[in-house]
Every structure is written in structure tokens, then in C-alpha cells.
């Protein structure tokens, strides 16, 4: 049973399909997965006209929309942000900022009170499709902000929040249907799908260091693509940010699994001009995480804490888009790697929400 106390839209379904029943939805169990997938792709929620009265054989008690007790497929996530727009139209707007290689929509949720003095904040996840926890955490944060907006501190409400929960929708869908460890997008090369590492496809430092910070080989997991911004997914990021009338102040790109807070540069060894400021902001986040869960995140530049990485989104956002607070946050967990148990989603979401909140207080000082 999916209770109407959690989703009042199901009242319509009950009224039209099973008005005397104590259950919200009854459908033939054999068709449940297929039916739910089709309906979620269209609308993100069930419609009365989609439920046939014929052939009803079983009570289905597993109807689940967006929650943070498990990892969800693309259709559920897209339906979730569409629902936020419907439920909170005064502050939530959903737009399509581009199309993926395979033609899927790249959706962005903007949460804003439309104050002209707000600073834009960019938050993306899933640029590497196997990093499922990044998508769960970004939707967790978006949910908190949308549903509690008027009770949140000014450091949150004086921002225009731009959430792209699934920047690589083709890859993410592929990890659910075919290969769980797929990292790249689904770009074709010489008639085969080999994929491009989207976080090596941005123009800043693209191809620098040869095969040290990215790869020219289409078969490498670090394949940078034939040219900077050769992929529609990275073009969507570039065009949205560069097309903004108000310059972005914060850029947050979520990954997993090294438990790090890193900032430019990845394509060269020397410190970036705002190294100390970025280090301090990162330390503020790391402290908030530790106070929330006891987990220790290291803070530093990309090249210092990981390895040479050329053509990354954070190097581009800091250097080309001039976003002063540009961070890549590597979430949990070094123990489980890319397969973080679903039981840790909410705890991870809480610690990162605390970290993001503290960062917003910090950036308001500048």
C-alpha cells in the first residue's frame, strides 16, 4: 500500500478505481514493474487512466516514489524533480538544459525566491554514472531546500540553487540495465559505443600532460573525447553557466568514493590564486561532516590529493567560468567503493547537507 497521507494525488486513483478499498492501488503484480516504469517516464506519478480494472489479481504494497532508502532509476528521479515543481511552483522550476548522446533530457531543478540579489549556486551529480551515491545525496539536499525553504537560514535562501541530479543520464541508465560499473557517457567511436569521460572533456587543461591526466584512447576509462566540449552533456553545463545573467558564486560537483573535498587545480601542480580561501572553505565543510558523523574528509587541491586530472569541470568552472568557490566532493566510501550500501544513503545525505550549509555561511563572508 502506498498511503495517500504521503501523496494526496493518489486520492484520485482511489476514487476512480477502487473507492471502497482500503488499498490505494491494485494492479496485476506480473505487470507492475513494466507499468510503473512506463508511467513514471511519462509523468513521474500514477494516473487513473493508466490503471485498467481488468485482470486485477494481486494487491501491490511496494509502490515507491522518491525516497532515500534505496537507489532509484532515472525515471523516478526525473519524476521527483517534476513533482517538486508542481508542489512548490513559487520557488521550483524544472528545465531541460540539453540532450544526452542518446537523446535523453538533461534536467535541471532551480530553487529560488527570485530575489535579484541572490548568488547562483551550481550542484551536479552523476557525471560518472556508476557513482550512485552522488545522485542520491544531491536529490536529498534538493528535497530539504524545496520543502523547508521558508524555514531555512538566509545563507540558504539568498541563493539561486541549480541542481542537475543526473548529468550523465545515458550512462546512469546503463548502469541500471547493463553494466553497474560503467563510468562514461555512451558516445560512439568508429561505430562502437566506447563512451567519453565527461570529467575530462572540459576545455581547461584538456589534453595537458598527454596520457597522465586523461587519455586519447577511446577504450580508456579516462578517454577525454576527440575535442574539448565534444559531448552534449558538457556543452549543457558550459552553456547554462556561461549564459547566466548573474555570475555563479559556488560550483559543487559530487562524486565518490574517496571521501575528499578537492579544488583546482588538477591539470597543474602549482597552487591556484585562491588556494587559501578554497582550503578554508573546504575545511569548514570537512569539520561539519566530522561533527555530523565522525567521518574524516581530507581537503586539498585535486593534484595534491588524487592524481593529475586534465579537463575537469572544477578546473573549468574556476578558471574559465570564474566561479570562486569551485569544489569536487568525493563522497563515501573507501570501504565499499562504488557500491555504498543503501542503508548509508540518509546518513551520507545528512552529513553533506550540514557541510553545504556551513559552506554557504562561509561564502557569504566574501
UniProtKB/TrEMBL annotation:
UniProt-recorded Gene Ontology molecular function terms: metallocarboxypeptidase activity; zinc ion binding
Acyltransferase as a keyword of this entry, yes or no, is no
- Active site at 330 (proton donor/acceptor)
Q: Which GO terms describe its biological process?
A: proteolysis
Gene Ontology cellular-component terms listed? extracellular space
Which coenzyme or cofactor does it need? Answer: Zn(2+)
A Pfam family that this protein carries is Peptidase_M14
* Family matches, as InterPro entries: Peptidase_M14
Domain called Peptidase M14: residue spans: 70-363
Judging by the UniProt lineage, the source's domain of life is Eukaryota
Tell me which SMART domains the record gives: Zn_pept
Keywords from UniProt, A to Z, are: Carboxypeptidase, Hydrolase, Metal-binding, Metalloprotease, Protease, Signal, Zinc
Enumerate the PANTHER family for this protein. Answer: FI01817P-RELATED (PTHR11705:SF91), PROTEASE FAMILY M14 CARBOXYPEPTIDASE A,B (PTHR11705)
Q: Which family does it belong to?
A: Belongs to the peptidase M14 family.
What is the protein name for this chain? Carboxypeptidase B
What organism does the UniProt record list as the source?
Papilio xuthus
